Amino acid sequence: MRRRVIGLTVLALLAVTSVAVAGSGAWFHSQSDSYVSVQAAHVHDWLHVYAEDTDPGGLTGYAVRRLSSPPTPAASGQDDTVVVDLGGFPDVNQAFEFARTITVMTPATFPEPAVTQVTVAVTLLPDPATGSQILRQVKLVPVGETKGAGSVTMAAGEQLQVDLTVRTRKQLELGRTYAPRVVLTLTYAGGPVDYFVWEIPMTCAVVGL
Amino acid sequence: MSRVGSKTGLVLRALIAAATTVVALALVTTALADLSRVDKFALLYEGQPLIVNSKAGESIVRGRDLVPGQKVRGQVRIKNKGTGAGVLYVRLRRPIDTPGPWGGELSQKLVLTIRRIDRGGSLHTVWRGHLSAMGKVRLAVLRPGAVRRYRFIVSFQMRPPARGHAVANQYQLSRFRTAFRWQLVPVE
């Protein structure tokens, strides 16, 4: 008897709920989905960064890591994965030249057909931990040459090398590894100003030799 | 004896219930058999709004390799094919940010403008704001048979960084995808 009462009560509640929901129109919301999908551009659509182990043309003669034995290229990797270890340095006032640490290359065709040339500028950022800048004089140089500039116009399919100078000082902390960065900024007519930016991490260890 | 009688009664009641359900289903099926699919919907939605979306399950806007300052746009047509008026809402559903190598969430820099396109072709902005901040937006009341056309404009907006380059850099190769759920809610 008790079960029957419970059963009837449940049925009655279901009936009342169904009528109430149907009457409210809540079941009858009509709906449909559409989509939006977007992706931001990447600087590697416009410019590639290579080291000796990734150079597509097999170019050699990249800068060697100081004090490495056997001599090892300072840079390795490509694009986002490029890292540069310039080696060990003394804590004295001295300059060390590194020719062709990395190379930059524009693609065979630019993503925007109307663009025929781009401007690539190279600058330096100091070690974020100490604020010290151990790098000096960075420039973009035609492959195999010595004269270059901090800002260069490049056509499609062109390759340039990045030459730089490490300038050590007495004040550098012995045993510390400094991590400055080389910044490549690409612009083109009608394009964004501060968007296509590479930050290439570099390391210089002060070892006293 | 009474237990046997109780069991027989239970089986009998179950049979009657099953027979009633089958007859009811048969009657409904027969009644709907001659109607087209739309008519069936219309019957089910009698007195209710029924949405028809020209971009149902499709992209209104797609864009690749966007750079700051660039816009992508697309249009959608929404019709109330029901027999009741409805309030038209649109809202984000399942937004997905896929950061690029430097971790920026693109939705933070996307501004959406929804513009109503009138019959004469004139445009009226009905909503504008950051996609990441979009809630449920009430767009219009659609009477039965009413049609609205909307233009969606998604722009990649980014101010130059105050210092350094990290801010500008971090959105490269980031992706954003979302559904927009259109909803017609019956007018009370």
Summarize the topology.
The complex is a heterodimer of chains A (209) and B (188).
Chain A (H helix, E strand, L loop, with lengths): L1 H23 L5 E11 L7 E3 L24 E2 L6 E7 L4 E12 L11 E9 L9 E8 L8 E5 L3 E10 L8 E2 L2 E7 L8 E11 L3
Parallel strand pairs in A: 4-12
Antiparallel strand pairs in A: 2-5, 3-4, 5-9, 6-8, 6-11, 7-9, 10-12, 11-12
Chain B lengths: L1 H32 L3 H8 L6 E3 L5 E8 L4 E10 L5 E13 L11 E8 L5 E8 L6 E6 L4 E10 L9 H4 L5 E12 L2
Antiparallel strand pairs in B: 1-3, 3-8, 4-7, 4-9, 5-6, 5-8
Keywords for this entry:
heterodimer, A: 209 residues, mainly beta, Immunoglobulin-like, 7-stranded mixed sheet, 4-stranded antiparallel sheet, 1 helix, 11% helix, extended, B: 188 residues, alpha+beta, Jelly Rolls, 5-stranded antiparallel sheet, 3 helices, 9 strands
Task: Note down, in words, how this protein is organized.
- The complex is a heterodimer of chains A (209) and B (188).
- By secondary structure, chain A is mainly β.
- Chain A has one domain: Sandwich (Immunoglobulin-like), CATH 2.60.40.10.
- In chain A, 11% of the residues lie in helices and 42% in strands.
- Chain A has one helix and twelve strands, in the order αββββββββββββ.
- Chain A has one helix spanning 2-24, and strands at residues 30-40, 48-50, 75-76, 83-89, 94-105, 117-125, 135-142, 151-155, 159-168, 177-178, 181-187, 196-206.
- The radius of gyration of chain A is 30 Å and the shape is extended.
- Residues 18-27 of chain A have low confidence and may be disordered.
- Chain B has 188 residues and is α+β, with helices and mostly antiparallel strands.
- Helices cover 23% and strands 41% of the residues of chain B.
- The mean pLDDT of chain B is 84.
- Chain B folds into two domains: 2-34; 51-186, Jelly Rolls (Sandwich).
- Chain B has helices at 2-33, 37-44, 166-169; strands at 51-53, 59-66, 71-80, 86-98, 110-117, 123-130, 137-142, 147-156, 175-186.
- Chain B contains three helices and nine strands.
- Chains A and B meet through β1 and β12 of A and β1, β2, β8, α3 and β9 of B.
